[in-house]
């Protein structure tokens, strides 16, 4: 089966990284100019579209995907709830993936946080008082990122709250440093601390995730998926092909 043709919307750092990585891998890539969405219908349709643009383009992107039946990987940060609902609205006709963070490292960080939170919540329910520590999330991005806190930081805080029933004490943002990102979850007890940190040193981490998720979405049944649900499905498929058991879903 031929590899799907990947369409990319967005000329920013992530959009360029996705296009460059896919091209370097010998993939067919089609770029759709975010300044001229009215011209997209005249262009050949891709097999899957990766949107790395901005919230202002949610309407033309979703219209293009609905009209042409194109699966969508939405990587746009700072979407309002109404804009997210518009993206999810494609799910009745095609696959749509909402991707707040495309890197493998964030997926593993989140799985680790879920495991830690589940263990601590179990201990607390068993009567081990003080098992659940204070939790805080810190994210760092360059000064060019306007949205704060990042969608990834908010997602980490939600996971902690959902698993433990206790809200994070703070979700803090720092705008400084290189043009990549860091996310840290710090758990603090009276006598010790545990930190789960993910540092990105190249946007190729997100670009590689985008290409892999796009390949998955291109053949997935209609529906709305989170990026971590896609990674779960990909890991399960790898384990099945290797005849290995998959660990308990987190």
Automatic annotation (TrEMBL):
It comes from the Bacteria. Pfam families: DapB_C, DapB_N. This is Pau36. One of its GO terms (molecular function) is 4-hydroxy-tetrahydrodipicolinate reductase. One of its GO terms (biological process) is lysine biosynthetic process via diaminopimelate. SUPFAM superfamilies: Glyceraldehyde-3-phosphate dehydrogenase-like, C-terminal domain (SSF55347), NAD(P)-binding Rossmann-fold domains (SSF51735). Residues 133-230 form the Dihydrodipicolinate reductase C-terminal domain. Residues 45-101 form the Dihydrodipicolinate reductase N-terminal domain. Belongs to the DapB family. Keywords: Amino-acid biosynthesis, Diaminopimelate biosynthesis, Lysine biosynthesis, NAD, NADP, Oxidoreductase.
